[in-house]
Design brief:
The chain is mainly alpha-helical. It has a three-stranded antiparallel sheet with strand order 1-5-4, sandwiched between helices. The protein has a three-stranded antiparallel sheet with strand order 8-10-9. A three-stranded antiparallel sheet has the order 11-13-12. Helix 1 (2-11) runs antiparallel to helix 4 (44-63) and helix 1 crosses helix 5 (67-79). 50% of the residues lie in helices and 12% in strands.
Length: 335
């Protein structure tokens, strides 16, 4: 497909180190996102540069007016205002084609860095989910004001929503309304309200995430807080190591002292001292040995426990190391 070939011209140049930063946005909606990169991200100032540069390159490819730009416009027209992501991928299998090894699909790049559409909570929306939700609430309000009572199915179809009955039921639930499939086809003046939803990004299916809670605690405190202080203030118990990894991986936070975090929006100077991370220790071990080391050799010498998969992901993500044989790493030498 010519459009994918144009996109690959941009994505094929992404390095392991860059991908560690880009994954924050590529996989931000996934419950298991942090397993891809953990705490092993470039410094905050480097992350911003990497993300901005990649987004600029994707936008430039879309704006050239070639097959990629035409495909993007067709997708936007088909999605507007909202479609289930599963149906979109079923209609356009090319969107699920990996354009960054090993498994970054084209739709993630187009949605998160190209601005072609937004994907959240299993829905694709144009221009974004908030606009689609707002339009939905307008249509619900119009049902009560219409001179002739009409069914919700008729009202939404007339206003550009190309959803099946089951999809419309699910979409209305996403927007805070409870309606059965049979009620969709009955003239109605109002829809039942579900308990008011918390905005996307501040809750998961089980309530606010650990990082959401940490962000709220920092906002309330107004000053940086040590990790142990954050753990004491949280209403639930969290493991120290995973929380440390998540705070380091989340773009909302900046580490301003050892194990001490602030909000990125405060624009405080990031901590430049040694992190004591597994990656740093691996580099030191390889330099001390004077030869490449196998993953298991590195893991055996680390003072802090880490899973084999976690260490592998960390070593693959950093630009400071290069894999020279299966599961064997050496320090990347400058040319």
């Amino acid at each position: 497909m010519e459009a994918l070939a144009e996109l690959r011209e941009v994505t094929d140049t992404v390095t392991y180190g860059e991908l560690a930063a880009l994954r924050r946005r590529l996989w931000a909606d996934e419950a298991g996102a942090y397993r891809w990169f953990g705490q092993y991200l470039p410094a905050p100032e480097q992350r911003g540069v990497i993300e901005t540069d990649f987004a600029d390159r994707v936008h430039a490819a879309l704006a050239r007016g070639g097959a990629l730009g035409e495909w993007a416009e067709r997708l936007r027209a088909e999605i507007t205002p909202v479609l289930p992501l599963a149906r979109l991928l079923n209609r356009h299998p090319s969107l699920d084609f990996p354009v960054i090894a090993p498994n970054v699909a084209a739709w993630r790049v187009l949605a998160r860095f190209g601005g072609v559409f937004e994907v959240n909570h299993g829905w694709a929306a144009v221009p974004d989910l908030a606009t689609a939700v707002a339009r939905t609430k307008e249509i619900v309000a119009e049902l009560g004001d219409a001179l002739r009572a009409e069914s919700p199915a008729e009202a939404f179809a007339a206003r550009g929503f190309a959803l099946t009955d089951d999809e419309l039921v699910a979409w209305l639930a996403q927007c805070g309304y409870r309606v059965s499939p049979s009620e969709l086809r009955q003239p109605r003046r109002a829809l039942h309200r579900i308990v008011e939803r918390i905005s996307p990004g501040t809750r998961t299916a089980r309530g606010p995430t650990a990082t959401d809670t940490a962000a709220e605690l920092l906002t309330q405190a107004g000053v940086p807080l040590h990790l142990d202080d954050l753990l004491q203030r949280m209403g639930r118990r969290y493991s120290r190591g995973p929380l440390y990894n998540r705070l380091n991986a989340d773009s909302r936070f900046a580490r301003v002292a050892p194990s001490t975090f602030a909000l990125e929006s405060w624009h405080l100077k990031p901590y430049a001292g040694p992190s004591g991370s597994s990656t740093d220790n691996a580099v030191q071990l390889i330099e001390r040995a004077g030869r490449p080391l196998h993953l298991d050799e590195i893991r055996a010498e680390l003072s802090r426990p880490i899973t084999r998969e976690g260490l592998r992901n960390a070593l693959n993500a950093t630009h400071r190391l290069v894999r020279v044989a299966p599961s064997t790493y050496d320090v990347r030498r400058s040319d």
